């Protein structure tokens, strides 16, 4: 499934005052008390609402409602309508679409009474937005059509292109691809005329979506790459993540699943960085689809469940239906027929809700009305053109006899100029085609460069470990062994025992590093099996703590466990043990003698949260950002000069992500560190 770019502007009417900076908020609030009259107080309330509009929807709603009460007292109907629109948009931002519609309709009634076409167009546009987000597409189209008619009367090209995209998205949702592409193309023409870079990118992404769904996959990728270049120029992380998602989805359609996974995980990483629930849900949904194609059904279930949880939170019925469909397929392949049946049943129910017959019939009627209006406009335009041409022809007939000779000369000159211009135009087209081809090659090289940079980082990490981190313990083993052999007769029993302990420590360090290295290598090559089973997290933690206590005892470090709630999870046991072992080993490594390490287990609705906290040397925020990135090459010595490669935390993040969980760290230098990760409940 692709990301559709709904160019829903949530068009905020310009209020009587200009936008006021955040730094003036407290000053404005204090001025309300000292306001000389209600008119000044009303202006201050709307200004404060505007300040909160982009940062705190609840606070904005509070001040807009106070402004409405005061405006009613002053009989300021236009101000009331403007506040209704702003309040509705805040509810829309909170995904409370029924409440937003209530305020938009109140504004519509007021604008009708004022005969305010500009206000009416904004109200209809916002009503269409809310209905579209509620997936009530027929009602959305009805209101978009009314807004479009008013925008045409007002000559507002920017808003016309916005509505064209919104209507195109409705047709795309209905799988009426030819009409969707027609509206997107009309919007693209206007955006290019206005030099609207963001609008151009959105149109190209949506046209790419249409071409992909029509099976014209290579053409769609070309449009996506053009849009990707624009989004990078604009610095839009949301836009970049969306394009990566769409490219990944298209590669799924092409059957190139490894390449698809590369783009989809790129999209997921950026979506998690900006905390965009809808994009995270969409990326996980598409990863689930790709995993099914790769016959990795357990991993498909993990990502589908993560996507489904977010889709329910944001109320996206389409994502929910697709996820239940994926779950049905995966469970069926795993021969869990009861869950497969239940998932299939829920998918069908959601699809029936989205596409009911009565809604579809209403949709077709509204489309016919819009086409009639469009045709009538075209007829009126042609009639005006015909009348103009008839008048022009009469004028030409009155003077044609005096212009025959001049016309012949003009035609001859025109013919010569035409030939010259045609040759020039042909040359320009050739140059333009060559430039376009070079640009496509440049974009492809840029994407390949990102991919190769990631591969190089992986390679560099591998060779760094082989050349340095493994060399040190083996050098120690060889060195101490040589000393014992050469001085065997001169060493007493205590000295021999000390050298043997040093050799044992070095070999244990090398073994631990080799275990992580082999696991990481298997993970990177795809040969590591993912076999989740239901386990009690408490048992696994107790077993792992008993192993690490030997290491901790050498530094007199106490390991405590706090099981706030009982928690059963569905995980790959080997991966879980590796995560716990690495986190506990790191905590002991960076904790001073006589220190303390605490393992805490807590439970949320769908996840189990495990934290490993120490009171050791801590870590700076700058270094936290490097911990889980393979290209950062970050490692440091322990409090007893223990060696570290940084590979363990990278492995932890990889394994946690495979389960659909998250891992993060916090800490301060000198105050210890805390590593927390989440895993899905059974």
TrEMBL record:
Top-rank EC class of the record's enzyme: transferase
Coiled-coil annotated residue ranges, if any: none
Pfam family, one: TPR_12
Keywords: ATP-binding, Cell membrane, Kinase, Membrane, Nucleotide-binding, Phosphoprotein, Transferase, Transmembrane, Transmembrane helix, Two-component regulatory system
Substrates-to-products reaction catalysed: ATP + protein L-histidine = ADP + protein N-phospho-L-histidine
Gene Ontology molecular function terms on file: ATP binding; phosphorelay sensor kinase activity
Cellular component annotations (GO), alphabetically ordered: plasma membrane
EC number(s) on file: 2.7.13.3
Compartmental location: Cell membrane
InterPro entries: HATPase_C_sf, HATPase_dom, His_kinase_dom, HisK_dim/P_dom, HisK_dim/P_sf, Sensor_HK_Regulatory, Sig_transdc_His_kin-like_C, TPR-like_helical_dom_sf
SUPFAM superfamilies, per the entry: ATPase domain of HSP90 chaperone/DNA topoisomerase II/histidine kinase (SSF55874), Homodimeric domain of signal transducing histidine kinase (SSF47384), TPR-like (SSF48452)
Domain Histidine kinase as annotated: residue spans: 465-682
Entry's transmembrane regions: 399-418
Protein name: histidine kinase
